[in-house]
Amino acid sequence: MTANKNYTSTIEIEQSPETAFNAIKNFRAWWSEGIEGPTDQLNETFFYHHKDVHLCKVKLIEIVPNQKLVYQVIDNQFNFVQDKSEWINTKLIFEITTEGDKTKVRFTHEGLVPEYECYAVCNDAWTGYIQGSLQSLITTGKGRPNPEEGGLNAELVEKWGLPQK
Length: 165
Hints:
The chain is of the alpha+beta class and 165 residues long. It is built from 4 helices and 6 strands. Strands 1-6-5-4-3-2 form a 6-stranded antiparallel sheet.
């Protein structure tokens, strides 16, 4: 079953589902300060870019308050892969549930599969954003997004030998 191959990452926190939901919607606070357009409005598109390494257009297609957010990648381009269709029409799904006194956030990048050329670098990057930056934003009110002029953190750029400008 391919569903098990999609990239997933789960965090458990003590904050409320509402706190988690509001943090997720604020992509500028945990993914990149350089995002253009609204990240929290249904059927609206935002644009993420990191230098010329990664560009993507993402649309919010489903909102269930304090429970679920689904974003669709409308267009995408990596400068380090051959297949330029990677990520296009994939979905970024955030599911929020309560277990006991904990809130669980499960992130699934539906369609990001190990066969993808970008999988290894994307896997590392998402893990850093979800387990690091987003979790920090929810628990402390401060995430670790890419700065506006920068992007993919320096260790990843170095680790993956990505072009630097």
